[in-house]
Automatic annotation (TrEMBL):
It comes from Roseovarius bejariae. This is histidine kinase. The keyword Nucleotide-binding does not apply. It catalyses: ATP + protein L-histidine = ADP + protein N-phospho-L-histidine. PROSITE patterns: HIS_KIN. Signal peptide: none annotated. SMART domains: HisKA. Coiled coil: none annotated. CDD domains: HisKA. Keywords: Kinase, Membrane, Phosphoprotein, Transferase, Transmembrane, Transmembrane helix, Two-component regulatory system. Pfam families: HisKA. The chain crosses the membrane at residues 52-75, 96-118, 124-141, 153-173, 179-196.
Amino acid sequence: MGLASFYNIELQTPRNLFLLTAQMTDYARVGQNLFWQRQGLYAAALILEAVYYSWIAALVAFAIVALTEVFDAYVFRRVLRMRKRNRAEAVFCLRLLYAGTILSSLNIAAFAITIALLQGHTTHFMPMFLLFAAAVFAAMNNHQIQSILVMRLSIYFAAFLFIPLYDIVVTGAPILSELWVQFFTSLFVMFFIADSSRVSRGLYMKTLQQMKELRAEHEKTKAAYVAKSEFLSTVSHELRTPLTCIKGSLDLIGHGAMGEVPEAMEKGVTMAQRNADRLSDLVNDLLDLQKMDAGRMEFHFDTVNVGTFLS
């Protein structure tokens, strides 16, 4: 499957642009965080090749590794700086990730094949183990974007098959020879890596879906909170104006400003005043709560006598 096919699949697989950019960002962030770990693995492998096989081949491999790492570092920075809602930029960054994946995977595969060729027609523990380690590393850390994971593992699996099959074809080894055992073992290892990749990918997508659901719930909660705040603010202000008029009128009646209050009405007026005061206090409390939620509540601190305050 070509690069264009991988590209088209990746654009169709994510449900939206946000999911795609989230996957790319996670991939780039993991790649940056694992920089020194990769360098340590590369250094160990190159030293072994230089000491036991060929320092010239190790030097060439080192130069290629340096170039691919520089390119990957550029791509990771570009991905982390891209605008999340810009589809064209996301597409361009995805193509860069594909290119970096192909370059680094081919370099590792070529490195393992070179060592196998230098070893001759025998069992190849070191190159096969290097491929196994690289494939497991990819399964654990490159599962964010499915097409990139498939692309990288396909290159590693091709090298897995090439190394034993090349020896079998050249030497004409019988089916019961160690070379065939190595080939069948490679098939088993490939199945194990593919299954591990599937599990890692599934766990990552499940986590991503849970994060998406949490984000949606957060947005719903935020919208409900805003609606509640607006409702309290509206109700408080709408109640305060007529309540002020009612309370003022009751105070005037209670103080006899509008004429003497009949004795039969005094109790009712007093009760109405008391409940109007309670309702006014409630409205003021709602307004204070609104100010506190908005961060506009002003506090004035002063020293008081506790005994006097409580008495």
